[in-house]
Structures are given as C-alpha cells and as structure tokens.
Amino acid sequence: MQIYNQITRTKEEFVPLTPGKVKIYACGPTVYNYFHIGNARAFLFFDVLRRYFEWRGYDVEYVQNITDIDDRIIGQSIDEGIPFSEVAAKYSCAFLEDSAALGIKAPTHQPKATEVMDEIIALIDALVQKGYAYEVEGDVCFDTAALPEYGSLSGKKTEDQLAGARVDENFQKRHPADFTLWKHSKPGEPVWPSPWGEGRPGWHTECVVMSRKYLGDTFDIHGGGIDLIFPHHENELAQARALTGKPLANYWIHNGFLNIDGEKMSKSLKNFFTARDILREHSAEAVRFFFLSKHYRSPIDFNREIIEESERAVNNFYSALKSIGFQNVSAIPDDTYFPQKEAFIQAMDDDLNSAKAIAVLFDLARNVKNEQLPRPQREQAALLLVQLGGVLGFFQNLACLEEATLPDLSRQLIELLVRYRQEARNNKNWALSDAIRDDLAALGIELNDTPGGCNWKHKE
C-alpha cells in the first residue's frame, strides 16, 4: 500500500510500526459552532482510511480529539451569554450527532483538551526544563530557533515565518515564529493554575498531548485538512521532537481544500454551509459519495448540481440491489475470486484512490442490473457491491430495501407462478404462459425471459 507522506512529499509504502496494527490520530473539531461541510471532508476521509485498514485485517486504534477550550469558544460564549463550558458541551453533542448522521464510526478514543490539563502542564514544564521553551509575562513560548528541524513538515524556513495561527502576538517573543504553549489569563476568561500563573493551553500543545497519551511517543499516521500542515501540525511535531528526539508520526496525511461554487467557503461571502444544513436536504451517503468521487488530496468544488448528481449515483446503487431482491441473496464463499475486488484493492492501495474504487462499484452495479447475466452471477455482484461499498461507508441504510421487498410468502408465490409459466412454455401452452405474464404485470411484476431463465422485478 502506497501513501503520500507530507514529511517526505512522496508516496511511500505503508509499513506499520507494529505488524498487524495501525495507530492513527486525526484532528477533530473545535466545538464553538456546528462543523461545516469542509470539516466533513476530513472527518469522512479518515473514517474511510480507518475502515479500509480494518477491512484489510489490521487492528486499528483511532484517536480523534475534541478541542473544548479555545479563543473562538470563549468568543461564542460571550455572543450566546453562557459559560464557555456550556458552549463546548452544546457543540460537542452536535458534533457527535452530525458525525453519526454522516455514518462516521466512533473513534477508539475521543479525548477532550480539558480532560488532559495536568498532562499538558507537565509537557510544557518538560520543554522549559530542556531549554526549548521560555516564559514571557505569564505566557510560555516554544523557541523555534532551538530546534534545527523546525519547518521540516511544512517546508517553511523559520526566518520567513510569522506568528502561528490562533496566537496573540507577543512582542517580547524571541522570534515571530515562536508559538504559545501556555497563555496567561485575561479578565473573565476560563483559567487553570500552572507554575507560570493562571491561564490556559495553546492549541498545538493540546493535540500533541492527547495523541501521545493514547498512541505513544511515535505512532503510524497523523492527519487532518491541508490547512493544518502549518502551523498546527508543524508545531505539534516540533514539541514531540524536542521532548523525545523522535518523530511524532511516521506518516502525515492531509486532505485538500473544499471550495463553494469556485470560491473559498466564507461566512462573509454567505456561502458557508454546515454539515447539518446539507443533511437536511441530502442523504449522508450522497455527501460521502461527493467527497469520495475525487481523490482526497485534490481540491474539490461544492455546488448543488454536483451533490444532486451524487444523490442520483447513490440511488443507482440501491436501485441495483432492489432489482435483484438483495435481502434474499445468499452469501458468497470466502475463497471466490472476483476481478473487481482486486481492482478495488489496487485503487485503494494507490494512496487511497477512492475515485477509482467507486468506478469499481459502478461496474458491479451494472452487472447486478444486467438481466442477460445468470442470476447467480448477478447475486455475487450484488454481494460484492455491498461488501466493497461498505469499506467506503456506503450501504449503511440497507433496511430501506426491506420496504420494497415482498414478504417471503408473496415472493415464493411469484416464483411458483414463474415456474408454472415456464412449464407452460415448455409444453407450448402459449395462452397460459401469456395469461400468467399478463396477470403478474397487472400486479406490478415484470417478467424478462433470457437464455439463462426467466427473471422478474417490480416495475419502476
């Protein structure tokens, strides 16, 4: 399996630290509002990455954090007139609800920043003791000049960098690129006690603590949106290297940007959509299809026409399953060979090329609907469609097929009439054969005679 690694800027063979196990940390939300559709791309991609590893037989430990203390949470608490903790709790619950609505599997661990405050303070103190951090008027800053490797992830040179995002400028910093590990408190803000006075942690330190707590000093994969490469992931990596001399993760994976009608999503442009907004109008699987129909590293443009096309594509998959009566299809032997399965694996092993993997699903759906094929072959295609689609997170709503599936007795009666009709045809009793066909047609059952036998389906 080949994965594009941001630290080397090349596709590399994926080799886990421990055979058979994969440890993944993906940055989660800052819970000051409902998460937007751009965030959803990252959450869905890492859900698929996790699902694929599990399908390939790996034991996956997946950690996704929740940032529940941040300047924007404090700002939202002022706007809503409620404590920051209530804002964080409100939008944490909304995040979990919307993630579940998108069909995203719950992570193995989902820590919150406020739950690891003692570990954060201990890490900052260790950096101070090792000479990689210094105090300035109650703030504690990381000394980027003390780490020669700083900038290796983003490719940015220290002398060209400005202060990191989410950091208030402090003109007593040794260098503008130095970033805040601990922020002194301002009147009315939430605070925690520390050796440097009351304050709260910086965003970059929260994540490095939570990832190392559950996955160790070095783990397999760290990722998020491309906008997190700098400063967030760069600053996480810097702290880990300063502490242990080791990389925080062996592979750094980032998904591309989302644009809205060709423009960057922005509240000021009024083209800002939350995942919750989109899910009111479109199915979760249509949203998933929309993102996965493009390679995860490519930028993608969101518009109504494309999401409606995605909805139709997903409906096509379900239509194929309905056409064959999927609920009564038998299981496939595990050792059965399918070229489509090999093509799917080949696509996903090539840096998670979900677009090519989806092309395999379309091929299978065509086979399912092809009434010229023997029914056993169509059934096998249907089962493989569901299996491979499930790796991408599709077909979580197979219960909807039951609504269109006849009770067992009704199905058995139709099959019985089809057999009687075949006997009539064998005996050249064309009148009886036509009568059975016409009576079934009046009930909404369409017959199709093929060299492999007679197939039937509900009229659409």
Labels describing this entry:
single chain, 460 residues, alpha/beta, Rossmann fold, Four Helix Bundle (Hemerythrin (Met), subunit A), 15 helices, 15 strands, elongated
Major sheet: arrangement of strands: 4-3-9-10
Gross morphology is elongated
The percentage of residues in β strands lies in 15-25%
Any idea of the CATH class of the largest domain? Alpha Beta
CATH-defined topology of the largest domain: Rossmann fold
Looking at the overall shape, the CATH architecture of the largest domain is: 3-Layer(aba) Sandwich
Report mean pLDDT, rounded to a whole number: 91
Taking the sheet with the most strands, its summary is: 4 strands, parallel
The percent of residues in helical segments reads 40-55%
How many structural domains are formed by the residues? 3
Distance between the termini: 42 Å
Number of strands: 15
| Helix/strand order | EEEHEHHHEEEEHEHEEEHHEHHHHHHHEE
| Parts with pLDDT < 50 across at least 5 consecutive residues | 163-168
Number of helices: 15
Helices and strands in order:
Layout: E1 2-5, E2 10-13, E3 21-26, H1 37-55, E4 59-64, H2 71-80, H3 84-101, H4 117-129, E5 133-136, E6 139-142, E7 179-184, E8 199-201, H5 203-215, E9 219-225, H6 229-244, E10 249-255, E11 258-260, E12 263-264, H7 275-279, H8 284-292, E13 300-302, H9 304-324, H10 339-349, H11 354-369, H12 375-391, H13 399-403, H14 408-426, H15 430-442, E14 445-450, E15 453-458
Parallel strand pairs: 3-4, 3-9, 9-10, 11-13
Antiparallel strand pairs: 1-2, 5-6, 6-7, 7-8, 11-12, 14-15
Helix pairs in contact: 2-3, 4-5, 5-6, 8-9, 9-11, 9-12, 10-11, 11-12, 14-15
